[in-house]
Amino acid sequence: MLTFFGRWRDPFSARRRTATARRLTGNARGVAAVEFALVAPVFIALLMGTVTYASYFLSAHTIQQIANDSARAAIAGMDDQERTAIAQSTVAAHVAGYPFLQGQVKNVDVKRSDATVTVRVAYDGQRDVWTQLLVPAPSTMIVRDAVIQLGGY
Fold it and tell me: Alpha-carbon distance 17 to 27, whole Å?
């Protein structure tokens, strides 16, 4: 490459390389953007995972509480058919009262043994928030049992 005075100048000479390196090491423009590009995907994945599992645990705990409440209500029934009807209506009323439960109750099963009543609630949460994120989620089917003793202590 010829300069203005007609002398040949090597663009990759050692002096030029060190001057360019000195100039670039003193320049910190764009470092924050590069760091953000490296850290942001990991941070967003962790955040989405936290939201996914927190929502799942909220739904699972709520279904357990609904099973507990329906078992408590079912002991008021005089026979197994009435207990089943009471438990099913209690589950339907409670699920309708929770706006974050967008799935549907698949099954409410009431079984009576000699001294206990067991209520099993099966809930399919395919339309819940925790299944819609891009993070692998637990199974959409949540099954919870509640056992309550008949006849006092």
Answer: 15
pLDDT digits (tens, 9 = 90+) for 24-82: 676 677 888 889 999 999 999 999 999 999 999 999 999 999 999 999 999 988 888 99
Alpha carbon separation from 39 to 44, 51, 87, 99 (Å, rounded)? 9, 19, 49, 34
d(CA 74, CA 18): 83
**Of the candidates 85, 88, 60, which has an alpha carbon nearest to the alpha carbon of residue 144?**
60
CB count within 10 Å of CB 145 equals: 14
- SS3 call for 145: strand
**Can you tell me the distance from the alpha carbon of 35 to that of 33, in angstroms, rounded to the nearest whole number?**
5
């089917």: which residue's tokens? 141
90 alpha carbon, distance to own chain's centre: 27
Q: Is 1 helix (H, G, I), strand (E, B) or coil?
A: coil
What is the overall mean pLDDT for the chain?
87
Dihedral of CA atoms 94, 99, 102, 106 in degrees, nearest 10, equals: 0
Q: Looking at residue 138, what DSSP letter applies?
A: -
DSSP 2: B
Please, are residues 36 and 116 in contact by the beta-carbon 8 Å criterion? no
